[in-house]
Amino acid sequence: MDSTLSGATSTARRRRRLTNRIKESVHDLNVQLTLLNHQVGAHLDLRDADLECLDLVSRYGPMGPTALARRAGLHPATLTGVLDRLERGGWVIRTPNPSDRRAILVQVIKEKETEIAYLLSGLSHAMDDVCAEYDDAELVMIADFLLRSTKAGRIATDELTED
């Protein structure tokens, strides 16, 4: 066999192995973060969907229930139950939408966010330590990889939603 062809085959095989290793690591990360979120929810007496919706409103600001249901991938009737639980627990309030008085906005009660931040502080500190091991150029590449991976996940989710 030609050594150039053999080298190309070896390079392709190595690339497939690395790509598979990355996919497995992303899957492992997803599992670990799901377990962490489940533990955070258990400490706060929140269901997984409740914590997810709370996170979305906290990250993206006040939003209407329809927009929240879409972002969370929940049926509007399911979201109503989530919002009722979050409101009863003192996590969110529903306020009139200033640009459309017939609509409401869901807002997180800021003081409650500190409870979640405290429970996630271990991860935050550990991630600071992980990031400290990389130089700026590597961090830029990792951030780009994560943004592109998030986009790939969003596309895959949208495709399944359309089915």
TrEMBL record:
Statement: the UniProt record of this protein carries the keyword Iron-sulfur: no
Residue span, HTH marR-type domain: 15-151
One Pfam family cited in the UniProt record for this chain: MarR
GO terms classed as biological process: response to stress
GO MF, one annotated term: DNA-binding transcription factor activity
Gene3D superfamilies (alphabetical): Winged helix-like DNA-binding domain superfamily/Winged helix DNA-binding domain
Key words, A-Z: DNA-binding
PANTHER family according to UniProt: TRANSCRIPTIONAL REGULATOR, MARR FAMILY (PTHR33164), TRANSCRIPTIONAL REGULATORY PROTEIN (PTHR33164:SF106)
Name recorded for this polypeptide: DNA-binding transcriptional regulator, MarR family
Species per Swiss-Prot/TrEMBL record: Actinacidiphila yanglinensis
